[in-house]
Amino acid sequence: MAGWDKKRSFRLKSTLLDAARGENIGFNDVFLHIWKGSSPELWTSDIEWTTFYGSFLRRYIQNLTDLSSEQDFLNFMRLVAARIGHQLNFRDLSEELGIPETTLNTYLTVLEKTALVYLLPEHSENGRNRKLQSHKVYFTDTGLCAFLSGWPTKKALMDGAMNDLMLENFVIIEILKSYRNRSVEPQLYYLRDSDGKEIDLLIEENEKIYPIEIKKTASPNPSMVKNFEVIPEEIRGNGALVCFVQDDFPLNGEASAIPISYL
Questions:
Q1: pTM of the full predicted structure?
Q2: What is the dihedral of CA 176, 179, 184, 188, to 10 degrees?
């Protein structure tokens, strides 16, 4: 299609379109990676999944200082894991846990500073003036998130109510890692406009904004990227729909379907 070029379709070059092509991976393989997590030990040894993450959590919490309550902190972690891909409402969390909002804010800061969670900021509606009004929360290790939110097997997670959000978490964190592995801190955001239209991920580079949607589909269509039009045309770069297609191809003149296997 005219205007579409694989080598410059959007600025996430070294992460997706210019990435080395591996074997195509399907839904089951992706969710195995999501559920099992990113720790090399889980992939290179026979350690049992629940044993690994249970031990990790005990060591992690025991090594933290100045926690008012280890159990309260663990309960907070579980609620955060169940709310990935959402803004955290501290008033609701405070009422549910019986913990002051100030303490919950401190707990979230601990999770962020120890790199267990990543907070994705909100971009302004018109894409020009950044408003860091609110953040969506994601776990940097999807296996830990699955453990905390109670998905004991890959199948349970794959068939469960959180599978879309876990996929979104996985893709966003893999993109973040791809930059940080090159010692680059990317400008990543999400967008929700006043009409409730959302874009999962924005990458801002060189005064351009590159939109990305993440879908659990192998049959993408242009309607899935219609919200990209929220971004003013003069600053909108070509975007992507990351999904379960086998090869990349154009959805329209400004957006491409990208296999999740490129991550």
A1: 0.89
A2: -40
